[in-house]
Design a protein that fits this description.
The protein has two domains: 35 residues; 180 residues, Sandwich (Jelly Rolls), CATH 2.60.120.10. The protein is of the alpha+beta class. The strands form five sheets. It has a five-stranded antiparallel beta sheet, with no helix packed on it. It has a four-stranded antiparallel beta sheet with strand order 5-6-2-7, covered by helices on one side. It has a three-stranded antiparallel beta sheet with strand order 12-11-14, with no helix packed on it. Helix content is 19%, strand content 43%.
Length: 221
């Protein structure tokens, strides 16, 4: 009888330990999900003194190589004779497995040799003594999100994979892969998050006031 009691006692202890371990795994998993972060990395940027005449759109195109994208975009330089820029401002980068060209200008344009992916706009007006044009690469697992923040300009999105969500005082918007979302007015509080069951990959395209902090913590009204 004593032997049977020992066996039963050992079995009870084993079951209890198993339950504790499983609870710990579940708690660790929950904490990992809660702590999952939406990672944002700068890809390419440039500063300019003047924007093209509006309304302005971001034209997004793919190219076979980065060299071809830069060559096709052509020169963009200040012309003192006309007191304006020659060409349109652009950013080129290899990210998310493809080569991208982002051109800021009027609606309906096209770059020779490029495959048009999207056109985003018209962008909200931004007025500044100097402008920062930047492309960020955003990614994160399901449940990941950014802190609530603002930018001194416009933040537009092209979703490469997954489902993106954005919460602002205007409400919540969801954007699926191969679709775009235009930016809000400068200073709009926002939270960006992965709204789908798979990993999110997005290209985030900015026109902001270069003389102000790029991102500032905020509260949602």
């Amino acid at each position: 009888m004593t032997g049977h009691r020992c066996i039963k006692s050992a079995a009870s202890v084993a079951i209890l330990l198993s339950a504790v371990v499983m609870a710990g795994v579940s708690l660790t998993s929950s904490r990992a999900t809660a702590q999952a972060k939406y990672a944002v990395k700068p890809v390419v940027e440039t500063k300019i003194k003047h924007l093209p005449r509006g309304p302005l759109y971001w034209r997004v195109e793919n190219f076979p190589t980065l060299a071809q994208a830069k060559a096709a975009a052509g020169p963009f330089r200040w012309n003192p004779d006309t007191v304006s820029y020659d060409g349109s401002p652009w950013l080129a980068a290899e990210v998310a497995g493809k080569v991208w060209l982002f051109t800021l200008g009027a609606k309906g344009g096209a770059t020779p040799g490029g495959a048009k992916v999207a056109e985003i706009g018209p962008l909200p007006p931004v007025s500044a003594p100097e402008y920062l044009l930047r492309v960020n690469h955003g990614s994160g697992p399901p449940g990941s999100k950014t802190p609530v923040h603002t930018h001194p300009g416009s933040e537009a999105f092209y979703v490469v994979a997954g489902r993106l969500g954005q919460r602002t005082p205007h409400g919540v918007v969801h954007v699926d892969a191969s679709h775009t979302m235009n930016g809000h007015a400068p200073g709009t509080p926002m939270e960006v998050f992965n709204a789908g069951p798979t990993d999110l990959t997005a290209l985030i395209i900015f026109v902001v006031d270069a003389t102000k902090p790029f991102s500032v913590p905020a509260r949602m009204p």
